[in-house]
Structure of Redoxin:
Amino acid sequence: MKKLIAAIATLLSFGAISFGNTLQGVQLKDINNKPVSLNKYKGKKIYIKMWASWCPICLSGLSEINSLSADKSKNFTVITIASPGQKGEKPTAKFIQWYKGLNYKNTTVLLDEKGEVLKRAKVLGYPSNIVLDGNLNIVKTLPGHLTAAQIKGAVK
């Protein structure tokens, strides 16, 4: 157990854990419960924030994500993904109703009901951050909250 903890600590100390996995072909739903393929974002660098409605750190960062999403000067797409029914998240209908009561109009929220992104990106906790290249390959994941400046630096 001590070796496992030491290995995880070593990986986290580098600030990013990189994987060779891809999110090509992943099917999600949008906040209106309509199907969305991540393939529609192919050709662009993508930043993904993985979050949950029960996570106070995640919620405190949504306003900054909303502002970053509206920033036309950035050279990447911002997506947030919640996973209804996974890791303690509300069921889909309740999540959608709850989220629509918030005022983050610039933020793209996709729903990973099957936990596919969680599995492929090996997300262990919330918030987590994923950077994809233009072919939807996972370039890196970063645990914890990131500011807009840190996100811009991670996507470079």
